[in-house]
Amino acid sequence: MRWARWIVLLLIALLIGGFLHYTLPQRDVVRITGTEVIRADVSGWTRIFYARSDTGNFDGSNRDLRLINTTRPGGTVAVYRNEDTGFGWPPYLKHDSSNLHAEASELTSTSGDPQWVVLTHYGWRAPILSIYPNAVSIRPVDSPEVSLFPWLNIVILILLAALVIFLWRLWERFEDRVIEPVVDGVLVRWAKLKDRLAGR
């Protein structure tokens, strides 16, 4: 029975970790090779990876999807979508996808004369599911060797850990002050009832 508890806890930890990995901002150093707009079908369960239906350009299950094509310093390619998040989840409050598309077009460069940028995004790239990470911001840098430290992610994770510890302590106090006295009272009444029925 103990292994079942550990499996459940592991699954919960994987779900929370996956949610945080998808939602928290990530930064990549890339070279923008081009931008494009494609017509995409976002029907089915993959719709959860795209913006809500009332955000930006949306018509049923089809929409125009802005893409930013990039190359990483090692030579591998990466494609990012560029759509507004609105006031939904994740709470990036992004309403400037047109401006970001113009910035990306302006920063397009070739391998002979590269312009490296730090592209902040959230989400995952899964070619088999046709989902892309969503670009949030772009800023030029001098070289691909720039060091990036995830200060914002660390602050968010510390705040989340503090919230979990606070809720855990709150639950322990509630258990001590409310649940345990009720359970003890029920057990005492049950013992008295058993004694009465046994004729003691």
Give the C-alpha Rg.
26 Å
Kindly give the count of domains.
2
CATH architecture of the largest domain: Beta Barrel
Shape: elongated
For the biggest β-sheet, the strand order reads 3-2-1-4-5
What fraction of residues sit in β-strands?
Answer: 15-25%
Fold-level CATH name of the largest domain? OB fold (Dihydrolipoamide Acetyltransferase, E2P)
Mean pLDDT: 88
Judged by helices, strands and strand pairing, the structural class is alpha+beta
What's the CATH class label of the largest domain?
A: Mainly Beta
Tell me the distance between the termini. 38 Å
Number of strands: 5
Number of helices: 3
Q: What is the helix/strand order?
A: HEEEHEEH
| Low-confidence blocks of residues | none
- Sheet having the most strands: 5 strands, antiparallel
Helix content: 40-55%
Set down the secondary structure blueprint.
Layout (H helix, E strand, L loop, with lengths): L1 H22 L2 E16 L20 E10 L5 E5 L15 H10 L9 E7 L11 E7 L10 H48 L2
Antiparallel strand pairs: 1-2, 1-4, 2-3, 4-5
Structural features:
200 residues; alpha+beta; OB fold (Dihydrolipoamide Acetyltransferase, E2P); 2 domains; 5-stranded antiparallel β-sheet; 3 helices; 5 strands; elongated
Give a written overview of the molecule:
By secondary structure, the chain is of the alpha+beta class. The chain has two domains: about 25-150, OB fold (Dihydrolipoamide Acetyltransferase, E2P), CATH 2.40.50; about 150-200. It has three helices and five strands. It has helices at about 1-25, 95-105, 150-200; strands at about 25-40, 60-70, 75-80, 115-120, 135-140. Strands 3-2-1-4-5 form a five-stranded antiparallel beta sheet. It is elongated, with a radius of gyration of 26 Å. The model has no long low-confidence stretch (mean pLDDT about 90).
